[in-house]
Amino acid sequence: MGIATFGSMNVDWERRIDVDRLRSERLASLRAQLEKSEVGALLAFDFGNIRYMTATHIGTWAMDKLIRFSLITRNSDPISWDFGSAAKHHQLYNPWLGETHMEADADPHAPHHGAVAPRAENGARAGISILRGAFHPDSGIAEGVAAKVKRELEKFGVANEPLGIDVVELPILFALQAQGIRVIDGQQIFLEARRVKTRDEISLLTHAASMVDAAYDELYEFLRPGVRENEAVGLVSKKLYDLGSEYVEGVNAISGERCSPHPHVYSDRIIRPGDPAFFDILHSYNGYRTCYYRTFAVGSASSAQHDAYTKAREIMDRSIAMVRPGVTTADIVALWPKAEEFGFADEEAAFALQYGHGVGLSIWEKPIFSRLVSFDNPETLEVGMVFALETYWPSKDGIGAARIEEELVVTETGCEVITKFPAEDLMVAGAQRYFTINGPMNLIRDSQSHLNTPAGRGELA
User: Could you give the 3-state DSSP secondary structure of residue 252?
Assistant: First the structure.
């Protein structure tokens, strides 16, 4: 299966991403999961779920605030309550929200169907949640949210059915329950809908990965002793935003002795000659994310670091070779080392070092690959799934480590890797700067100079 990549602009002379198809196919997938479920409606506060349902967006500043909410019932189009003037903007520029209405062929006597709606209303409306508790508890905001939701459930004949919610703040939950609404977990319904990607989602994910390819190329040219981890973060972020990134969620920059154990956060550490350094670049293009590790050595690499990289690459390559439709997550993680084999007490302590996860509008979607959960709860791979596989291995010197991540699309016959920056062997950055009297410095060398001479190693009589 060939995966198309395009420029970031729309043009009249080439068929690129079909955003109308993207919206309609996502909504159809969500409707299908809703119909299979026990709920009469789904209420979303999660930023990714709202976008998947309504194709609305008000900026990444709102991602962690739970201020927006959207509802879809079995008998209506999506309704989105949004932050102040954003609702009016949606009415002007998001015509696909249109008007909420009862399905034309709805049977009011059938299960999950009720009385025909008295009139149609625009699906984009002003509404606000409780600002993560910043509104005074007595302001009535939570009760207002519940009343808005209850009105639509009654209007579309599903008030007596369970309401599925993805994530919710407790005052909102209590207010809904006070309205007599039975709330259950709806997160799995959203995640099942998002499990298999459409052709346009795959193209967007591939384009997002191509932007990280470019960021890694610039980072490789920049890396040298004397630069700091936070400078690398700034360089990568600028490159991604210059290329049209919507949101740089994070750049994980880890070097030297910080590599083992992995701290999962960058610092202002100065990178030194011979240091290992690995990076994870997480950003989104039109909402679709990346999670993309690469490991380098700076100036030169120790034999221990090279061995660690070789081990991490072998684990990765065996895993990729196994990926095809019908294989399970348990089959993949069976190829991975146990936590005890690389220095951890158990799988929970080593979680996310040998790891896999779906990638889409969120960083971690279905399916999940981990020895912690996949043996007891295996998931079957399907054509159109997009996920990342991550491997890790510490070096024998107790300082360095290697971290590799590839993003894959499951195809009819196997998979296609969409992360293209070279990673088949350990790459050394900044090496062209070092020469000895015999020419370019050997790129495999121990960190202490005396260990790189026969006399220093005690090999002379």
Answer: strand
